[in-house]
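tool_call predict_complex ligand=zinc ion
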Amino acid sequence: MTSPQVWDLYAIKYATMQERTRRDNFMVSDPHDDAPMPIDYFVWAAVSPEQTIVIDTGFDAEEATSRGRTLQRSVTEGLAMVEIEAASVADVIVTHLHYDHIGGHAEFPAAQFHLQESEMQYATGPHMCTHTLNHSFTVGHITDMVRHVFEGRVTFYDGASEIAPGITVHHVGGHTMGLQFVRVLTRRGWVVVASDTTHFYENMERIAPFPIVYNVGDMVRGYAALRAQADTEAHIVPGHDPLVLDRYPAPDARLEGVVVRLDVAPK
Ligand SMILES: [Zn+2]
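tool_result ok
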């Protein structure tokens, strides 16, 4: 292992769905619990003096329309707010192949995609015959990724691996077969970008799994895996929780409500 690099780390919100209720976000819930529980959509970016690594690609306007989500800005526009040009990003870690994580891949024409082997197997294998397991995937994104495999633009991992000094990926499965989370060394220590290992803080805190799931046992183990890799629980960043924007500071007032810094302690 090379000596670790310290990274700046951002979460960038690009979309939301306000019309979501508590019963949509927990596997075990009161079917009448229709209290609002909106979901936000993020990409993340780790920046060092030498390198920029983006985590996930978001989705585009067409996907937002077909799935009834509100796209607030393209991922390209969101990244530009922190001086990152999506079109020239060289490395994108893909936590999993659900539409909201791979749907923006075309905005990264120069990127190498870093993916777990088991996620590609899941997205192209027998489980995709079943609506219950395939409905969060969009077939066009998956066929595009198959093309990227043939073009040499996908680097595969089987378990934990180092992507760059100070950035590692960790396979957990659960939500999908090949879901991975990302650990980033920052000025406040090791921060874990959980992605959908925990959608909301509450999934992890109450061990209350999100209802879109491939393997519940692995999803529950995933909460422990996050804690094992983060310096403290306050170093774990959920994948879809609007609270992330409340807890962390914006880089400057202009970016309030859109971008936060994850490399500084939460408020
Ligand atoms: Zn997601």
